Amino acid sequence: MLRLEQLSVQYGVLKAVNKVSLSIAPATINVIEGHHGAGKSSLLQAIIGAVPAQGKVWLDQRLLNNRRSPAQLLRMGVVLVPEGRQVFARLSTRENLQFGLHVSGQKGSISEVLEYFPELAPLLDQPAYVLSGGQAQMLAMARALLSKPSYLLADEPWLGLSYGPRDRVWQVLTDLCSKGVGILVSGEHKVPTGAAIKQRKIMHNGNFELGE
Asked: Are 106 and 130 in contact (CB under 8 A)?
């Protein structure tokens, strides 16, 4: 269980996230919906220690240090796919994936994630800057999967995607859920029709309300 307790993020006088408490259980998909600037990205970044935060984060009954870092959380099985993909544009698709495998310290092969995203196979030796938005999102997701996460955080994973790539990303998320991965997804727009949502929450201006 990944559990947040009264988590808050403040930038100067601006409170981006206000005392959020929620739990992400294994084998569930949790969706945060809210407008741009509601604090969704700040919340996900706070969980992994990418931005300073107040409050507590528990991972499987273990209280995480407030000085936690993304690298530490990655090794503990909590991985963020950031908004905007953030792939290395000058590196090839293969090199981006190899980097993900290296920093995670996991043993595995690129071929494992190509089963999820076969569209990337013919692009392995192409620089990432030639990828379309959908392909770049698939690459960012594939790179995260190489770490074999127990909990996957995805920030706006369908932003700017057409229906085909967007549905492919959701197929991957639902498959990971069926294999026991706990998932927290943020987005400004509604989830794809028919997406398998086990638990759903709505966020407005840093505050959570239960969704339908």
From this structure: no
Q: pLDDT 10s per residue in the chain (212 long)?
A: 999 999 999 988 888 888 899 899 999 999 887 777 778 889 999 999 999 999 999 999 999 998 899 999 999 999 999 886 689 999 999 999 998 888 887 777 899 899 999 999 999 999 999 998 888 888 999 999 999 999 999 998 887 777 777 888 888 999 999 999 999 998 765 555 555 555 555 454 544 443 33
Amino acid at 206: G
Domain count of the fold of the chain: 1
Domain of residue 61 covers: 2-210
User: Got the DSSP string for 69-113?
Assistant: -HHHHHHTTEEEE-TT----TTSBHHHHHHHHHHHHT----HHHH
pTM: 0.86
CATH number at residue 195: 3.40.50.300
- Torsion angle (degrees, nearest 10) of CA 181, 184, 189, 190: 50
